[in-house]
Automatic annotation (TrEMBL):
Belongs to the organo anion transporter (TC 2.A.60) family. NCBIfam families: oat. One of its GO terms (cellular component) is basolateral plasma membrane. This is Solute carrier organic anion transporter family member. Signal peptide: none annotated.
């Protein structure tokens, strides 16, 4: 019981840390000025590390000391999380773009854009520290964590399934799966708390921070949750070093098993087998033998269908989990903290409830293979239907002069290529920096320079930019204010997406336990751990790793304006086409759901065909 509790605690910790890293990913992206494709690689690095050893762990799981195997993995997790937080302490302080309190020598002066650039330090300093490639520490650290976390899942599920009755197994696996879903909820909630705190708290005077969490330059304390994970893993892993290799397990005893001579013989056989596993080479079988046996099984077609379902749903979850916080930030103007809270407190609980309900349905009505497949089809179809409204709910892109609307001074009715216009061509504006200002008619300009402003005035410590040539008629007598005109033009619409996604999660959750059981029921008992391991291997190769990268590339394709730091030469997106972003992001989710529905229907036809043959043989 102690070992099971420690394993569950270990599992809970790993999924908590995994989803916490996703909840703070947009802040990491902003802190290190990364495009979404690179931040997707950061997110996938855990799975890449996991992939490198998953097949080996699945094969060796029953041949080594399991508690110490887990303890060694926990040690790697401890080291990995330390690597993840190193950039925060080795790098320079975060420098953000805010002109609202920039001091000026007088209330009216002519300036060039270079004079209001937010980077107060030299390029040499930033190149060496803050804007260097320190995010690579995070990638390497997450890969080490992926290697350390590999032993947990493939050994746990098969153990429960082997030591429970056929129908109780559904409930127990449902409980374990629910625990793995509670972890993500806690991870997002922890991210919501940490992202409200300034990234460099304790190193700077917080009173000098003039922006709030909704500001486009805000970066929360992304590293703080990883410190919590370091402490938790140190506490959880310590007892595992002292566990024995084998514990007594409850078994259903038959009359024959109760005979003293049989019990004595079993103990002797067990001892001899342990000695053989100790002294013979550890690879006393080969992968090829297990794979060939798996290919020859009559249920191999079922196994392939289940893998397609498992992979397509995993692809969807990998993409959504990685970028859903950023999606709510971009599409509805929510802060990273608010977005993480909505996902952790509202969205994921529906998934947890759905998973528990699906487990209860399987146990209560004692669903067999056909019943579980039908449950999956119903759940997938309802989940797909509930997700469709999210494809249409969204806000328009904030009006940006030269990007989404023409300059007011332009005679053209369509947007010209580039963000430069005749009204600001003499200003020689930096075309790679985004410091938005708001002008008349709620039009946002990329910078005071792009608004054609030549003077600045300061009142009550706040800067305004005047004598602007790009504001339209009488523009030179008007001024622009610091910041975007508004964060979102339909912020309340986010609740429609939250409701849609929560219901979709609920119906998807009803299928999770059934998928897990079908994956184990479609292979021979001796190949159960190997089959689960191969399934996880395929999931990582086709879903967990390419999923975030595909979503990230699609998100980058919807970018309207790329900013570039003049010191690091690293580009990152600051303005997105909201409609293109939404259609691509939600559209890819719907495509993955369609693939799972098709695979479930094919699996249903195979099971019905098999049961028809079985009934025909019985009648004869």
């Amino acid at each position: 019981k102690i070992e099971k509790a420690m394993n569950l605690f270990e599992l809970l910790h790993q999924v908590l840390a995994g989803t916490y890293s996703r909840s703070v990913l947009s802040s990491i992206e902003r802190r290190f000025e990364l495009p979404s494709t690179i931040s997707a690689v950061v997110s996938s690095s855990y799975q890449i590390g996991n992939l490198t050893v998953m097949a080996l762990v699945s094969y060796l799981g029953s041949k080594v000391n399991r508690p110490r195997f887990l303890a060694a993995g926990s040690l790697l997790l401890f080291i990995g999380y330390i690597l993840v937080v190193l950039p925060q302490f080795l790098g320079d302080l975060y420098v953000f773009a805010d002109l609202s309190t920039t001091s000026t020598s007088n209330h009216s002066q002519t300036f060039t854009f270079a004079e209001i650039t937010p980077h107060s330090t030299s390029c040499e300093m930033e190149e060496e520290k803050a804007n260097s490639n320190m995010y690579i520490f995070i990638i390497v650290g997450m890969m080490v964590c992926g290697i350390g976390g590999a032993p947990t899942q493939p050994l746990g599920l098969s153990y429960v399934d082997d030591h429970a009755s056929e129908h109780n197994s559904a409930l127990y696996i449902g409980i374990i799966t629910t625990i793995t879903l509670v972890g993500p909820a806690l991870g997002y909630l922890m991210g919501s708390f940490c992202l409200k705190i300034w990234v460099d708290f304790g190193r700077v005077d917080l009173d000098s921070i003039t922006i709030d969490p909704k500001h486009q330059s805000w970066v929360g304390a992304w590293w703080l949750g990883f410190i919590v994970c370091i402490v938790v893993i140190a506490i959880a892993s310590f007892p595992l070093w002292f566990f024995p290799k084998h514990l007594e397990k409850p078994e259903e005893k038959t009359k024959e098993d109760t005979k003293p001579e049989v019990t004595k013989l079993k103990k002797k056989m067990f001892y001899l087998q342990s000695q053989v596993n100790t002294f013979l080479p550890i690879f006393n079988e080969t992968y090829s033998i297990n794979i060939i046996r798996l290919l020859k099984e009559k249920t191999f077609e079922y196994y392939i269908c289940v893998l397609v379902i498992f992979t397509s749903i995993g692809f969807k979850i990998a993409g959504l989990g990685t970028f859903v916080v950023k999606y709510l930030e971009v599409a509805f103007g929510k802060s990273a903290s608010q977005s993480s809270f909505l996902i952790g407190a509202i969205n994921l609980p529906f998934l947890i409830i759905g998973t528990l309900l699906g487990s209860v349905i399987i146990k209560r009505w004692k669903l067999q293979k056909l019943g579980m497949v039908r449950l999956c089809i119903c759940g997938f179809v309802l989940s797909f239907a509930c997700m469709i409204p999210s494809f249409f709910i969204g806000c328009d892109t904030i009006a940006h002069a030269g990007l989404t609307v023409p300059y007011p001074t332009s005679a053209e009715t369509e947007i010209a290529d580039g963000v430069e216009s005749t009204c600001n061509s003499m200003c020689h504006c930096d075309q790679n920096t985004y410091i938005p200002v708001c002008g008349p008619a709620n039009i946002t300009y990329l910078s005071p320079c792009h608004a054609g402003c030549t003077d600045t005035s300061s009142e009550s410590g706040k800067n305004e930019y005047t004598s602007c040539s790009c504001l339209g008629a009488n523009g030179t007598s008007q001024s622009v204010t610091i910041g975007r005109c508004f964060v979102s033009n339909c912020e309340e619409s986010v609740w429609g997406v939250i409701v849609s996604k929560s219901l979709s999660n609920f119906f998807s959750g009803m299928c999770i336990t059934a998928i897990m059981i079908l994956k184990m029921r479609t292979v021979l008992p001796q190949d159960k751990s190997f089959g689960i391991g191969i399934g996880l291997l395929v999931y990582r190769v086709l879903a967990a790793i390419p999923g975030p990268i595909a979503f990230g590339a699609l998100i980058d394709s919807s970018c309207l304006f790329w900013s570039q730091n003049p010191c690091s030469n690293r580009s990152y997106c600051t303005v997105y086409d909201n409609h293109k972003y939404r259609r691509g992001f939600i559209g890819l989710v719907l495509i993955a759901q369609i693939a799972s529905i098709v695979a479930a229907i094919v699996l249903h036809s195979l099971v019905v065909k098999e049961q028809g043959k079985y009934t025909f043989k019985q009648e004869h």
